[in-house]
Specification:
Layout lengths: L2 E6 L7 E7 L2 E8 L2 E6 L13 E3 L2 E3 L6 E3 L17 E5 L2 E5 L1
Antiparallel strand pairs: 1-9, 2-3, 3-4, 5-6, 6-7, 8-9
Keywords: 2Fe-2S, Iron, Iron-sulfur, Metal-binding
Protein name: Rieske domain-containing protein
InterPro entries: Rieske_2Fe-2S, Rieske_2Fe-2S_sf
Length: 100
């Protein structure tokens, strides 16, 4: 996989989501209980932005139509035919590296 971008590891605070744009990708980076997630900022259901969705226990709920997605697998818990794009994220020294 190709590296999309790097950010400082301390730039994403606990229970905080940030949107980063790189190479045509709009990616949300979120931290929950010291786990980092990176996922597409677009709900597959209606292509609405997800960055303001509620995240709890590794599941995001779309703020628009309440679709729910597992942030590890991308699978929808609401509609099995819908899948959220998940990006690989890895900590390296003091940085987070997102691959796509």
């Amino acid at each position: 996989m190709k590296e999309l971008f790097r950010i400082a590891i301390d730039s994403v605070k606990e229970k905080e989501s940030q949107v980063f744009c790189a190479e045509g990708h709009s990616v949300v980076v979120h931290k929950e209980e010291d786990v980092y997630y990176a996922f597409e900022n677009s709900c597959p259901h209606k292509q609405m932005e997800l960055h303001e969705g509620q995240i709890k226990n590794g599941v995001i709920t779309c703020p628009w139509h309440r679709f729910r997605y597992d942030l590890q697998s991308g699978l929808s818990l609401t509609n099995k035919q819908s899948e959220l794009k998940i990006y690989r994220i890895q900590a390296e020294a003091e940085q987070l590296v997102v691959y796509g």
